[in-house]
Amino acid sequence: MRHTYWWTVLICGVFFHANAFAENVAEVVGLKGEAVMLSAGKMTSLTVGASVEEGAEIRTANPGRIKLRFLDGSIIVVGDASTLKIEKFYAGNKEAPRVGRFVLDIGLISQTVAPSKKGSWVVRTPSAVTAVRGTEFIIEVKPDLETEVNVQSGAVAVEPMGRRMRGFIGGAGIKSPPVIVVDQQSHGTTCNTAAGCRMTEKANDDRLRVLADRLSGV
């Protein structure tokens, strides 16, 4: 019984320590509607000027759009009815590269990623993984979990989420879907777990206007 007590105290102490010192990695610089931050089991309503922690999950209402500015100057706008987790973020310095890892479960985001000679910026969705160094692009995860990626400038490498797993399970002779590189302005691709990612093509102008409108006002 005594061992159980001290084990519980130890676990609670480690949990408190890990979350008491969660780093602030971004600031809310724009808000339209409502958005909350879920961090360490606590849900907080966000306002302009609020700090956002590493490991936090951002959830927007409908309506609810929020603009986040990260420590390296990168900007993410989260659209209505979206869920984005800041899995890991480090701005980087002369000794260590930048690290940005995000998970978009559902909804719409736009990103303006600050240029970086070293490091990574990765967004994972249920059906794709995107990787960039410096660019502007939009990602939407639709209700059927299909992922749409549209590039405004720069380049994005888009990989089907199931690509590595299919190659591992299938073994020799099973060809995995290719990684798609979107490197032309106003071009994009869509991905799903069954068929992988389509070849890049120019996005419809009306579609791009609709996406821009859904991210405006913050």
Distance between the termini: 55 Å
Number of individual domains: 1
Order of helices and strands: HEEEEEEEEEEEEHEEEEH
Compute the average pLDDT. Answer: 87
* CATH architecture verdict: Sandwich
Report the strand count: 16
What level of helicity do the residues show?
10-25%
Number of helices: 3
Residues in β-strands, percent: over 45%
Task: Please give the CATH class.
Answer: Mainly Beta
Major β-sheet annotation:
16 strands, mixed
Give a written overview of the molecule.
The protein has 218 residues and is of the alpha+beta class. It has a single domain (22-214), classed as Jelly Rolls, CATH 2.60.120. Helix content is 17%, strand content 49%. The chain is built from three helices and 16 strands. It has helices at 2-20, 163-170, 205-214, and strands at residues 24-39, 42-45, 51-53, 57-70, 75-78, 83-90, 98-112, 119-124, 128-132, 136-141, 147-153, 156-160, 180-182, 187-192, 196-197, 201-202. The chain has a 16-stranded mixed β-sheet that branches. A hairpin with a 7-residue loop joins strand 6 (83-90) and strand 7 (98-112). The longest helix is centred in the first third of the chain and has 19 residues, at 2-20. The chain is globular and about 40 Å long. The N and C termini lie far apart (55 Å). Mean pLDDT is 87; it is low at 1-20 and 164-173.
